[in-house]
Amino acid sequence: MNRLFRDDALKKIYDKVKKGIRLSREDGLVLYKTRDLNGVGRMADHVRRQRHGNDAFYVYNQHLNYTNICKNRCLFCAYAVDEGDDGAYLWHMDEIEKRLMARIEEPVNELHIVGGLHPSLDFDYFTGLLQTVKRVRPNAKIKAFTSVEIDYLSKLSGLSVKETILVLKEAGLDMMPGGGAEVMSERVRKKLFPKKVNAQRWLEIMEAVHRAGIPTNATMLYGHIETLEERVDHLISLRELQDKTGGFSAFIPLAFHSQNTALSHLPATNAMDDLKNIAIARLMLDNFDHIKAYWVMITEKLAQVALAYGADDLDGTIIEERITHEAGATSAKGLTRDDMERMIRDSGFVPVERDTFYNELRRDGVLTTDYKDKGHGA
Ligand code: V47
Ligand code: SF4
């Protein structure tokens, strides 16, 4: 028997995919509702191979979470605490420098920097943070601050979002990560993250950031109380903004981890849901170049499989992930370059080490640029 799809409803969608016709909201729902995971994956792999062939990207990066003190206290977050609580921390510049220096012999070329909304910092802390990182690691790119932090920074600075971004850019900001959108539903926001910026503001900030010349990523937090309709609407809102600005680089589905949160009764996401979110993102987000399988959240093993379900990027080495591990993630806290390359190669893809902007640095373990492998901070 030679059947491509176990679910006949997927055939019509595949016809559209092959012709490059944009999928509708209804198509998105069919994809989420079907039990034919491999059918969805096959379509996503078709699109993935058209864009990226057999290449799979990763970045040599380091995460810095400068504070876990946050006044928003979203219900799904196990990372944030109040000022004065046990374990509350804020890193001043000497601590930031110490953490960068601890890895200075490694060829880190991206710093991923995010933190909570601290109630008593001033704007200079943030420009100082970027300047410190650029001084210690002049060749690395800085991907920092979510849309939620930018909203807060523009209030601290008293400047518009555009002006705030221009000041941060001058201090060293190269790109922004995609966190903070969660799922763009007012119903879910009211229940889980009422103090966080709403969907309209998140999109408005992203639009202003893109127009100021800073690319960003986008994410979706799934596997809590959101409906399938809300997931599809979230993807469509991102696709519409991407049509306007072209400023999104990658989309990253984030699998909810409930341990140590107010939602600890909720079960973990399963492999079916994790792979579907990757594949459906690849199919719905026809104007996004990159779909990341974030191994921290879905485990190294499933991230390898995800490369055949539409993902083309495994994010990075990370070195000390905190946000998901506080919520019970069982993945490693960081991986080596060899780990990343082995994961990709063993899945049948070609490992391509990239920088923040997807410039190729190494292909299958061989340097392809004059990128200096060591001594970034020297
Ligand atoms: O904004 C918080 C989410 C995000 C939990 O842009 C949780 O390259 C799961 O945005 N379970 C931060 N998720 C992570 C993030 C990210 C990660 C990797 C790459 C990029 C990128 C961005 O994590 C938060 C929030 O949406 N989050 N708590 C939790 N318990
Ligand atoms: Fe604060 Fe972000 Fe955690 Fe929400 S998800 S409580 S904004 S650190």
TrEMBL record:
CDD domains: Radical_SAM. It comes from Desulfocicer vacuolatum DSM 3385. Pathway: Quinol/quinone metabolism; menaquinone biosynthesis. Radical SAM enzyme that catalyzes the addition of the adenosyl radical to the double bond of 3-[(1-carboxyvinyl)oxy]benzoate, leading to aminodeoxyfutalosine (AFL), a key intermediate in the formation of menaquinone (MK, vitamin K2) from chorismate. Keywords: 4Fe-4S, Iron, Iron-sulfur, Menaquinone biosynthesis, Metal-binding, S-adenosyl-L-methionine, Transferase. One of its GO terms (biological process) is menaquinone biosynthetic process. InterPro entries: Aldolase_TIM, CofH/MnqC-like_C, Elp3/MiaA/NifB-like_rSAM, F420, FO_synthase_su2, MqnE, rSAM, rSAM_sf. This is Aminodeoxyfutalosine synthase. The gene is mqnE.
